[in-house]
């Protein structure tokens, strides 16, 4: 039971660090990094479904700038897809993360994917400094005693 309480305490302690980037709700705010995670069934996969394949091709040829501007997306940093896992991750910067849902609907990817919108942070510039600060390990290096 002690490990269970430790896990809960750890999650609660880290939530403020990981929730910080989720606060950008204004067009005057600095863009924050978000992931649009999608998952679909084998039936809806563009590899197996001709209509979905047409939608994917249409998205690939679109000028996304007007749609991005409309919904506060300042950049699409990368688009990763796993055909056999039927998943994808688009890393985007946005000033208005609450509008990512509407962006995905108008873009068309919400028609055939279950979507999640998750604040992202880089490992070295985001997670590591916060974990160091949380545990008072600012000067600690691997191999140092405690």
What are its keywords?
elongated; 146 residues; 22% strand
Explain this structure.
About 13% of the residues have low confidence. The radius of gyration is 19 Å and the shape is elongated. The protein is built from 5 helices and 4 strands; from the N terminus they run H-E-H-H-E-E-H-E-H. A 4-stranded antiparallel sheet has the order 2-3-1-4. It is of the alpha+beta class. It has a single domain, classed as ACT-like. Chain A, domain 2 (Alpha-Beta Plaits). Helix 1 crosses helix 5. 39% of the residues lie in helices and 22% in strands.
List the helices and strands and how they pair.
Elements lengths: L1 H18 L12 E8 L10 H12 L3 H6 L2 E10 L4 E8 L5 H8 L6 E6 L3 H13 L11
Antiparallel strand pairs: 1-3, 1-4, 2-3
Radius of gyration based on Cα positions: 19 Å
Strand order of the largest sheet: 2-3-1-4
How far from one another are the termini?
A: 26 Å
Tell me the name of the CATH class. Alpha Beta
Main pleated-sheet profile: 4 strands, antiparallel
What is the average of the pLDDT values? 86
What's this model, at a glance?
With 146 residues, the chain is α+β, with helices and mostly antiparallel strands. The chain has helices spanning 2-19, 50-61, 65-70, 100-107, 123-135; strands spanning 32-39, 73-82, 87-94, 114-119. It has a four-stranded antiparallel beta sheet with strand order 2-3-1-4.
């Amino acid at each position: 039971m002690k490990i269970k309480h430790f896990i809960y305490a750890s999650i609660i302690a880290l939530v403020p660090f990981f929730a910080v980037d989720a606060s950008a709700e204004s067009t005057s705010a600095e863009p924050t990094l978000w992931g649009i995670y999608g998952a679909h069934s084998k039936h809806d996969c563009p590899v197996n479904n001709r209509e979905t394949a047409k939608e994917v091709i249409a998205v690939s040829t679109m000028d996304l700038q007007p749609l991005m501007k409309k919904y506060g997306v300042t950049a699409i940093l990368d688009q990763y897809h796993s055909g056999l896992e039927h998943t994808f991750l688009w890393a985007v910067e946005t000033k208005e993360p609450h509008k990512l849902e509407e962006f995905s609907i108008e873009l068309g990817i919400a028609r055939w994917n279950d979507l999640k919108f998750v604040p992202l942070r880089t490992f070295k510039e985001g997670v590591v400094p916060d974990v160091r600060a949380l545990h008072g390990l600012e000067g600690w290096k691997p191999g140092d005693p405690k």
